[in-house]
Amino acid sequence: MTVKDKFIFGVEVETTRGLIKDLSVDTRINHAIEMSRSGHLDFLAVTDNPGGSSHIQPEFLAQKLSGVDINLIVNVSCKDSNRNAIGSRLWTLASEGIFDILALTGDYPTEGYSGSSQPVFDIDSVGLIDLMRSMSLEMENNGEKTLFNPGCVVSPFKLTEAELMTQLYKLDLKLKSGAKWAVTQIGYDSHKLYELKNWFKQKSINRPLIGSVYILNRGSARFFNKWGIPGVYVSDSLLKIAENQATARDKGKKYFNEFAARQISVLKGLGYSGVYISGKPTPQRLDEIINIYNSYSKNDWKQFADAINFPQDDEFYLYRKPKTFNTYHSEYSEKYLESSKKARTFKQRLKSPIRYRIGKFIHDSFFSIDAKGYKIGHVFYKYVRGKKRTSQAFHALEQLSKVSLYGCKDCGDCSLPDIAYLCPESQCVKNQRNGPCGGTRAGMCEIPDKECIWSRAYYRLKPFGDETNMLSRPVVFRDSKLNGTSAWSNTFLGLDHNTKKNKIR
């Protein structure tokens, strides 16, 4: 995606069910083509099975839109395909001349033919970005001049400290892995938008940051208020406004057109590079919103920013709220400073779970490549590698300890040290090894009623000052061929992902 000097506009084109000749599909394509010719837009973005249900493949819809004279972005998620199938999709898109890809982990599927479908999550959004980086190198070596231009998503609208901080750490990993631009999740809190931009300033991140604006109505407000889309929330106060506006003759259309225009104005005022508009706007409605936006004066956005603040109750903020939204600083909030001071005490270290302390001690003593015990383990497992019964006995001993302590699933490519000794295979429905997905609600997983393992890992690491570096490492890919084999043996013999991590060190 080409980000110009000016503030850019884009619209999401949501795929749908049905044959391409169906009226609803044909209308959506025609609307997209008409909007692309309006002179307002710089890009169109095509969704990938939104909500986890099956739709027309975005590649096919992108072909129908290939003639538009603006950038075309295709969303690619990891929920439905393994890494080989995703690679095939990417080669197909590149062959069609589509290189702008928005990388998504994807929502957990909640429906499917004759019951819920089995999610894949062979890789996540970080792995997908790294895959595109590798494919771009291959294309470049073959003389191709146009390479993949991957984007990523970040969700700053989080309730708890652990939720927000791990989102920011994962964003850093996505950018280091090759993401060229970022888009925010949908949200209605200008202070959180400010914080994200402030994070970019503080970290000297020079990548385009695009804000999401979803055009609300009463139905969508009710849906978001009930967390109908994982990670997207409309507060009770904003829902009340939507309910009141729905009683108007136009059912709130005029109000929410202006609400969207004001959100766009806030994004531009905060220094965002552009806006990603969703909510299935018609060409006429898009014109109305952009005309309202164009009617505002240069500094109106500051007033709008103060008004568009609909956080969750007792929401955590990383930075102190500024006197004016366009003044960026590095002063942390009192809540963050207080939590850090409290966490760093010796008492809090003693309160760390015994399983974590056991795992950390054993890892630092034996499994870390710098440990004295590592050479012993390497020599031992090299010796028993060809002895079947001995190998099986020590594998059984390994499982006896790891299943009872960590709920090990015997994947053979262990990420316990990567996630504060929490198993992503048994305790994360998406098996996330490179940071949390964006679907958490108040620190809880979007599917089962339990705390996200990445939030738990954050609080385990914080007393030791290790939380800021929890994702300062190479991207982790689980090697499926190691499934059912000894993770201890694979680590000591250099067969798992830790080999790559140690080489980079």
Would you give an account of this structure?
With 505 residues, the chain is α/β, with parallel strands linked by helices. It is built from 20 helices and eight strands. It has helices spanning 23-36, 58-64, 83-95, 125-141, 161-177, 190-202, 218-225, 236-245, 253-270, 283-294, 300-307, 334-343, 346-350, 354-367, 372-384, 388-406, 424-427, 453-461, 487-492, 497-504, and strands at residues 8-13, 43-46, 71-77, 100-104, 149-154, 181-184, 209-214, 274-278. β5 (149-154), α5 (161-177) and β6 form a beta-alpha-beta unit. α3 crosses α4 (125-141), α5 packs across α18 and α9 packs across α11. The radius of gyration is 24 Å and the shape is globular. The mean pLDDT is 93.
Summarize the structure.
The mean pLDDT is 93.
Named at the architecture level, the CATH assignment of the largest domain is Alpha-Beta Barrel
> Can you give the helix content as a percent range?
40-55%
Rg calc: 24 Å
Number of domains: 2
Total number of helical segments?
20
Residue stretches low in confidence (pLDDT < 50, at least 5 long) are none
Task: Assign an overall shape.
Answer: globular
- Give a quick account of the main beta sheet: strands, pairing sense, barrel closure: 8 strands, parallel, barrel
Topology as H/E string?
EHEHEHEHEHEHEHHHEHHHHHHHHHHH
Query: What is the number of beta strands?
Result: 8
How do the strands line up in the largest sheet? Answer: 1-2-3-4-5-6-7-8
- From the helix content, strand content and strand pairing, which structural class follows? alpha/beta
Mean pLDDT over all positions? 93
- End-to-end distance: 33 Å
Fraction in beta strands:
5-15%
